[in-house]
Amino acid sequence: MLRRIKRLFVIKTRFEAYLIIFALALGAMTRGVRYTLEYPGVGGYLLWAATAGAVFLGGAKILDAIRYERDAKANAEAE
Q1: Residues 1 and 47 sit within 8 Å (Cβ to Cβ)
Q2: Could you read off the pLDDT of 34-65 as tens digits, one per residue?
Q3: Nearest by Cα to 16 from 49, 79, 65, 50
Q4: What is the torsional sign of CA 27, 14, 69, 3?
């Protein structure tokens, strides 16, 4: 039973990854807007850029992990 519940929290496809990255980006950009309101000027925009950069790095890592898992599974089946 726990295994079935655990599978709900595993990203299996690129489509699921894109949905998660979109949700992360939406939250990060909302936070970035708040930063520009709290810290007007260059500091707020730098924090906004940092939130965007974090999503880019995290999204790339998620997509790479999915590709790696797919390739590892294909290699395991081939052997």
Answers
A1: no
A2: 999 999 999 999 999 999 999 999 999 999 99
A3: 65
A4: positive
